[in-house]
Amino acid sequence: MRLLVSVRSVDEAMAAARGGVDFIDLKEPGAGALGGLPIATIRAIVAALGTRRIALPVSATIGDVPMDRLDEILAQVSAVGCCGVDYVKVGIEPGPLAIGVLDELARCAWPVVPVFLADRGLDIRLLQHACGLGFPAVMADTADKASGSLLELVPRAELERFVACGRAAGQLVGLAGALRLADAAALRALGADFAGFRSAVCNGDRAAALDPLRLRQLVVAMRGDNAMATCGS
After folding, report:
1. Which long-range contacts (CB under 8 A, 24 or more apart) does 93-101 make?
2. pTM of the model
Protein backbone atom coordinates (compact mmCIF):
# COMPACT_ATOMS: atom_id res chain seq x y z
CA MET A 1 0.00 0.00 0.00
CA ARG A 2 1.29 3.43 -0.96
CA LEU A 3 1.57 6.22 1.55
CA LEU A 4 0.16 9.76 1.27
CA VAL A 5 1.23 12.34 3.83
CA SER A 6 -0.27 15.81 4.15
CA VAL A 7 2.09 18.77 4.48
CA ARG A 8 1.64 22.51 4.89
CA SER A 9 5.02 24.01 3.87
CA VAL A 10 8.08 23.59 1.68
CA ASP A 11 10.08 22.25 4.63
CA GLU A 12 7.45 19.63 5.45
CA ALA A 13 7.20 18.61 1.79
CA MET A 14 10.95 18.05 1.66
CA ALA A 15 10.86 16.06 4.89
CA ALA A 16 8.05 13.90 3.53
CA ALA A 17 9.92 13.26 0.29
CA ARG A 18 13.09 12.32 2.19
CA GLY A 19 11.06 10.08 4.47
CA GLY A 20 9.89 7.85 1.63
CA VAL A 21 6.26 8.82 0.99
CA ASP A 22 4.56 8.01 -2.32
CA PHE A 23 2.21 11.01 -2.52
CA ILE A 24 2.64 14.53 -1.14
CA ASP A 25 -0.68 16.12 -0.18
CA LEU A 26 -0.95 19.87 0.40
CA LYS A 27 -3.39 21.05 3.03
CA GLU A 28 -3.69 23.31 6.07
CA PRO A 29 -4.66 21.00 8.96
CA GLY A 30 -5.42 23.95 11.19
CA ALA A 31 -8.23 25.06 8.85
CA GLY A 32 -10.46 21.99 8.91
CA ALA A 33 -10.59 18.44 7.62
CA LEU A 34 -9.62 19.49 4.09
CA GLY A 35 -8.31 22.94 4.91
CA GLY A 36 -6.83 24.65 1.88
CA LEU A 37 -3.41 26.26 1.79
CA PRO A 38 -2.97 29.74 0.28
CA ILE A 39 -2.49 29.53 -3.47
CA ALA A 40 0.95 31.17 -3.13
CA THR A 41 2.03 28.41 -0.73
CA ILE A 42 0.84 25.67 -3.07
CA ARG A 43 2.78 27.25 -5.92
CA ALA A 44 5.90 27.56 -3.76
CA ILE A 45 5.79 23.89 -2.73
CA VAL A 46 5.25 22.69 -6.31
CA ALA A 47 8.12 24.89 -7.50
CA ALA A 48 10.45 23.67 -4.73
CA LEU A 49 9.72 20.04 -5.55
CA GLY A 50 10.38 20.71 -9.22
CA THR A 51 13.64 22.53 -8.52
CA ARG A 52 14.86 19.54 -6.53
CA ARG A 53 13.62 17.14 -9.24
CA ILE A 54 11.33 15.34 -6.82
CA ALA A 55 8.84 13.64 -9.11
CA LEU A 56 6.35 12.41 -6.52
CA PRO A 57 2.66 12.95 -7.34
CA VAL A 58 1.26 16.01 -5.56
CA SER A 59 -2.34 16.58 -4.52
CA ALA A 60 -3.88 19.66 -2.93
CA THR A 61 -7.21 20.35 -1.26
CA ILE A 62 -9.52 23.25 -2.08
CA GLY A 63 -10.67 23.79 1.51
CA ASP A 64 -13.89 22.84 3.26
CA VAL A 65 -16.52 24.26 0.90
CA PRO A 66 -20.18 23.23 1.40
CA MET A 67 -22.02 21.47 -1.41
CA ASP A 68 -24.45 24.39 -1.85
CA ARG A 69 -21.61 26.69 -3.00
CA LEU A 70 -20.89 25.07 -6.36
CA ASP A 71 -19.51 28.21 -7.99
CA GLU A 72 -16.97 28.59 -5.18
CA ILE A 73 -16.03 24.90 -5.42
CA LEU A 74 -15.36 25.17 -9.15
CA ALA A 75 -13.42 28.43 -8.76
CA GLN A 76 -11.22 26.89 -6.07
CA VAL A 77 -10.65 23.77 -8.16
CA SER A 78 -9.44 25.94 -11.02
CA ALA A 79 -7.21 28.07 -8.77
CA VAL A 80 -5.57 25.01 -7.22
CA GLY A 81 -5.30 23.15 -10.52
CA CYS A 82 -3.47 26.10 -12.08
CA CYS A 83 -0.69 25.64 -9.50
CA GLY A 84 0.56 22.55 -11.31
CA VAL A 85 -0.55 19.84 -8.86
CA ASP A 86 -1.34 16.37 -10.15
CA TYR A 87 -4.64 16.02 -8.30
CA VAL A 88 -7.18 18.45 -6.83
CA LYS A 89 -9.03 17.03 -3.81
CA VAL A 90 -12.64 18.07 -3.17
CA GLY A 91 -14.61 17.02 -0.10
CA ILE A 92 -18.00 15.48 -0.92
CA GLU A 93 -20.64 15.69 1.79
CA PRO A 94 -23.48 13.16 1.54
CA GLY A 95 -26.84 14.65 0.64
CA PRO A 96 -29.10 15.64 -2.26
CA LEU A 97 -26.63 18.13 -3.77
CA ALA A 98 -23.67 15.76 -4.00
CA ILE A 99 -24.55 14.11 -7.32
CA GLY A 100 -24.85 17.47 -9.07
CA VAL A 101 -21.50 18.58 -7.64
CA LEU A 102 -19.85 15.36 -8.81
CA ASP A 103 -21.28 15.82 -12.31
CA GLU A 104 -19.87 19.35 -12.55
CA LEU A 105 -16.48 18.28 -11.20
CA ALA A 106 -16.29 15.51 -13.79
CA ARG A 107 -16.85 18.10 -16.53
CA CYS A 108 -14.13 20.49 -15.38
CA ALA A 109 -10.66 20.60 -16.91
CA TRP A 110 -8.75 19.45 -13.82
CA PRO A 111 -7.90 15.98 -12.40
CA VAL A 112 -10.29 16.02 -9.44
CA VAL A 113 -10.30 13.42 -6.67
CA PRO A 114 -13.63 13.33 -4.79
CA VAL A 115 -13.10 12.77 -1.07
CA PHE A 116 -16.19 11.20 0.48
CA LEU A 117 -16.69 12.38 4.06
CA ALA A 118 -17.77 9.24 5.87
CA ASP A 119 -18.40 10.27 9.49
CA ARG A 120 -22.01 9.04 9.18
CA GLY A 121 -21.19 6.18 6.86
CA LEU A 122 -20.59 5.82 3.13
CA ASP A 123 -23.36 6.24 0.56
CA ILE A 124 -22.50 3.44 -1.84
CA ARG A 125 -24.93 4.75 -4.48
CA LEU A 126 -23.14 8.09 -4.47
CA LEU A 127 -19.82 6.31 -4.82
CA GLN A 128 -21.13 4.18 -7.68
CA HIS A 129 -22.24 7.37 -9.45
CA ALA A 130 -18.78 8.89 -8.99
CA CYS A 131 -17.09 5.74 -10.24
CA GLY A 132 -18.92 6.11 -13.52
CA LEU A 133 -17.64 9.65 -14.11
CA GLY A 134 -14.00 8.92 -14.87
CA PHE A 135 -12.26 10.50 -11.89
CA PRO A 136 -8.62 9.36 -11.53
CA ALA A 137 -9.15 8.34 -7.89
CA VAL A 138 -11.66 8.34 -5.05
CA MET A 139 -11.01 8.68 -1.32
CA ALA A 140 -12.88 8.12 1.93
CA ASP A 141 -12.06 10.47 4.81
CA THR A 142 -13.61 11.95 7.92
CA ALA A 143 -14.60 15.53 8.72
CA ASP A 144 -14.38 15.38 12.51
CA LYS A 145 -10.88 14.18 13.34
CA ALA A 146 -11.65 14.18 17.08
CA SER A 147 -14.35 11.51 16.79
CA GLY A 148 -12.00 8.65 15.97
CA SER A 149 -10.37 7.14 12.94
CA LEU A 150 -12.09 6.14 9.72
CA LEU A 151 -11.67 2.49 10.73
CA GLU A 152 -13.56 3.14 13.97
CA LEU A 153 -16.37 5.15 12.40
CA VAL A 154 -17.10 3.10 9.28
CA PRO A 155 -17.86 -0.63 9.38
CA ARG A 156 -15.29 -2.80 7.66
CA ALA A 157 -17.87 -4.13 5.20
CA GLU A 158 -18.61 -0.59 3.98
CA LEU A 159 -14.93 0.12 3.49
CA GLU A 160 -14.49 -3.13 1.59
CA ARG A 161 -17.39 -2.16 -0.72
CA PHE A 162 -15.83 1.27 -1.20
CA VAL A 163 -12.49 -0.24 -2.23
CA ALA A 164 -14.11 -2.82 -4.48
CA CYS A 165 -16.26 -0.22 -6.25
CA GLY A 166 -13.32 2.04 -7.04
CA ARG A 167 -11.14 -0.84 -8.12
CA ALA A 168 -13.86 -2.18 -10.45
CA ALA A 169 -14.00 1.23 -12.14
CA GLY A 170 -10.22 1.26 -12.63
CA GLN A 171 -9.70 4.12 -10.18
CA LEU A 172 -7.10 4.53 -7.47
CA VAL A 173 -8.71 4.15 -4.04
CA GLY A 174 -7.48 5.95 -0.94
CA LEU A 175 -8.44 5.82 2.72
CA ALA A 176 -7.78 8.57 5.27
CA GLY A 177 -9.24 10.07 8.41
CA ALA A 178 -7.33 10.34 11.70
CA LEU A 179 -5.51 7.10 10.87
CA ARG A 180 -2.88 5.90 13.31
CA LEU A 181 0.29 3.85 13.21
CA ALA A 182 -1.63 0.97 14.79
CA ASP A 183 -4.03 0.92 11.82
CA ALA A 184 -1.33 -0.18 9.36
CA ALA A 185 -2.18 -3.89 9.30
CA ALA A 186 -5.92 -3.29 8.97
CA LEU A 187 -5.36 -0.81 6.16
CA ARG A 188 -3.17 -3.24 4.23
CA ALA A 189 -5.85 -5.93 4.64
CA LEU A 190 -8.51 -3.67 3.10
CA GLY A 191 -6.49 -3.53 -0.10
CA ALA A 192 -6.79 0.16 -0.97
CA ASP A 193 -4.14 1.66 -3.23
CA PHE A 194 -2.98 4.26 -0.71
CA ALA A 195 -3.63 5.53 2.81
CA GLY A 196 -3.44 9.16 3.89
CA PHE A 197 -1.96 10.40 7.15
CA ARG A 198 -1.37 13.63 9.05
CA SER A 199 -2.03 13.15 12.77
CA ALA A 200 0.15 10.04 12.95
CA VAL A 201 3.24 11.89 11.72
CA CYS A 202 2.90 14.92 14.01
CA ASN A 203 4.38 15.39 17.46
CA GLY A 204 1.10 16.52 18.97
CA ASP A 205 -2.20 17.13 17.20
CA ARG A 206 -2.53 17.30 13.41
CA ALA A 207 -1.87 21.05 13.39
CA ALA A 208 1.60 20.50 14.90
CA ALA A 209 4.72 20.19 12.76
CA LEU A 210 5.56 17.01 10.89
CA ASP A 211 7.92 14.79 12.89
CA PRO A 212 10.49 12.91 10.72
CA LEU A 213 10.87 10.15 13.33
CA ARG A 214 7.14 9.46 13.42
CA LEU A 215 7.11 9.50 9.63
CA ARG A 216 9.92 6.94 9.53
CA GLN A 217 8.04 4.68 11.95
CA LEU A 218 4.91 4.96 9.82
CA VAL A 219 6.73 4.10 6.59
CA VAL A 220 8.19 0.99 8.24
CA ALA A 221 4.78 -0.02 9.63
CA MET A 222 3.05 0.42 6.28
CA ARG A 223 5.68 -1.33 4.18
CA GLY A 224 7.50 -3.64 6.55
CA ASP A 225 11.11 -4.64 5.91
CA ASN A 226 11.09 -3.18 2.39
CA ALA A 227 10.95 0.31 3.90
CA MET A 228 14.23 0.12 5.76
CA ALA A 229 16.45 1.13 2.85
CA THR A 230 14.18 4.08 2.07
CA CYS A 231 14.07 5.24 5.66
CA GLY A 232 17.82 5.16 5.93
CA SER A 233 18.32 7.43 2.92
Report:
1. 93/66, 93/67, 93/117, 93/143, 94/120, 94/121, 94/123, 94/126, 95/67, 97/67, 97/68, 97/70, 98/67, 98/123, 98/126, 99/126, 99/129, 100/70, 101/67, 101/70, 101/73
2. 0.94
